[in-house]
Amino acid sequence: MSHISETRVTDCYCGKIAILKTSWTNDNPGRHFRVCPNTGGRGPALQCGFFMWVDPPMCPRGRAIIPGLLRKLKARDEEIASLKKRLRVMVAVILLLGFLLFFWFI
C-alpha cells in the first residue's frame, strides 16, 4: 500500500496535476520536484505557487562532485559538436578536391 501512496499523483493548490521536473542547480543537481503547471506562465495571477521536493536532499559530497561532472560532460559535448563540424568541413573539401581532380584528368 505504501508504494501506491508514494507514486500517487500530486495536485497543486489550484487543483491541477503538479508536473515533475528536475533541478540542475549546483545546490540540487538531479533532484526531482513537482510544481504547478502554471508556474512560469504569463503573470503572477496564473501561478498558485505550489512547489514540493520529490527526492530527499543530496548529500554534501554529491553536491560537491556532481556540478563538476556536469561541467565536464558539457565541455565534452561541446568538443564533440566542434569535431563533428570540422569533420563535415573536411569531407566537403575532400569531395570538392576529388571532383576537381576527376574533371582535371578527363
Automatic annotation (TrEMBL):
GO terms for molecular function: class I DNA-(apurinic or apyrimidinic site) endonuclease activity; zinc ion binding. Keywords: Lyase, Membrane, Metal-binding, Transmembrane, Transmembrane helix, Zinc, Zinc-finger. The chain crosses the membrane at residues 87-105. It holds the Pfam family Zn_ribbon_GRF. It comes from the Eukaryota. Residues 12-57 form the GRF-type domain. This is DNA-(Apurinic or apyrimidinic site) lyase. It comes from Handroanthus impetiginosus.
